[in-house]
Amino acid sequence: MAITNVAEYAHLSAADLEALATELDAIRRDVENSRGADDAAYIQRAIVFQRCLDLVARALIGGSRSRAGLAVGTLALAAAKSIENMELAHNIGHGQWDWMNDPEIHSTTWEWDMVGPSSQWRYSHNYRHHVFTNVVGVDDDLGYGVLRVARDQQWKPSNLLQPLRHLLLAVTFEWGIALHDLYSEQDRSETDAQKSAQTRRLLRKIVRQAGKDYLLWPALCGRHWKQVLFANALANLFRNLWAYTVICCGHFADGAEKFTPHALEGETKPQWYLRQMLGSANFRAGRVMAFMSGNLCYQIEHHLYPDLPSNRYAQIARRVETICTKYDLPYTTGSLARQYLLTVRTIVKLALPDRFLHATCDDAPETSSEKKFVNSAQRPGLRDNRNEALRGLASTIGKRKPHQRRVARRRWQLAAVIS
Question: I want to staple 54 with a disulfide (CB 3.0 to 4.6 A). Which of 31, 80, 306, 328 is the partner?
């Protein structure tokens, strides 16, 4: 099963955990105390750039007489929509810029360029997901209700179709998120009237968003309405695929651990910090890709500090990685391609019943628990007497890798013989 005792899994004692939290709290204080004009200028420049890119893209789409111009305009519009969705709307919705007291750039007023209302997303994402990250049966974002991404999720015959569901969800991601947010918010509704009001709010947003993309903009371009309609639909598709890829890599790649509901019982802030670090994964990105992904290439840092400005995540990441090294915790990262392929492997593999899978639910690449270390000599808080360096989870995993490689090689050879 998934992780129940997070500290035991991480090989940390209570004292180690408190010390870890103290260092992570210090990072928050440092960033909060240093926020200022440079950060405000960053988000304002990002908004201006996104809006200018959007206008230029639409001008190219509506005025182009060549396929090349239409292609450039469509790609530019997809980029503008991705920036608005991830670096602007997502991060503003987290309250990262509320400290500016700017009514335009505030979590309660920004309405994003997606079919779902921002208000419904803020509940399902900021609360249900970020507070209960990767807790099976509690975090609604764990597989979005349609994908089995951990062995603790009960297998159903419908899971055989999840490789196709995965593709369908990627293509229609904004629509999937809208319905997901609606159901999540309706779960907390006490009356049918409240549920009806939430449904009406979603329908109004769908009409407004679809009307803008598929009626208003094409109508403004007259006889070229067909190419505008096509470009808008294609730009939304590209944005959906990009957003889905980035989010999957941060939550479903190997190393992004899953937890049982028992892990929440009596959970302290240090334990919450630790769960966020173990339940998220990064991918390596340069400045451009980081900006295009809303700086969610730093998913670990985002889950530790979801309300700190995204432009600070790169500097925060250096300190968090240093802390992980100090406490011998894994800092899960890799290339975007690798993280995505690991995610696809999990989705395809867990489409099958457990009886067809080799690894156990306590020791699998996508799901593990503290029981995987039953025979390990490592114990929580154990220190090396020679240099007082903490030996823990990362060292234990490192020692297990040669054996895991031998097992993988034998399975590969067996598969080759069978085929």
Answer: 80
Distance (Å, whole) CA 321 – CA 158: 40
Residue 375 is predicted with a pLDDT of 60
Residue 389 vs residues 22, 257, 383: alpha-carbon distances, Å = 18, 25, 6
The SS3 call for residue 410 is helix
Distance CA 272, CA 408 (A): 33
Q: Where are the alpha helices (DSSP H) in 212-335?
A: 217-220, 225-251, 269-278, 287-292, 299-304, 313-326
Q: What is the pLDDT of residue 391?
A: 60
Note the pTM of the prediction, 2 decimals: 0.89
pLDDT tens profile 261-294: 999 999 999 999 999 999 999 999 999 999 999 9
Q: How far is Cα 395 from Cα 370, in angstroms, rounded to an integer? A: 15
For residue 256, give every residue at least 6 positions away whose Cβ sits within 8 Å of its Cβ, in sequence order, or none: 134, 250, 279, 280, 281, 332
Which phi and psi (to 5°) does residue 363 adopt? -150, 65
E strand or H helix at 370, and its extent?
Answer: none
Tokens of 34: 């240093």
Distance CA 123, CA 140 (A): 11
Average pLDDT over residues 392-401: 70
Gap between the Cα atoms of 257 and 368, Å rounded: 7
Q: How many other C-beta atoms lie within 10 A of the C-beta of residue 314?
A: 15
Tokens of 105: 């750039």
Mean pLDDT of the chain: 89
- Residue 110's pLDDT is 96
One-letter amino acid of 227: Q
Two tokens at 297? 């290439």
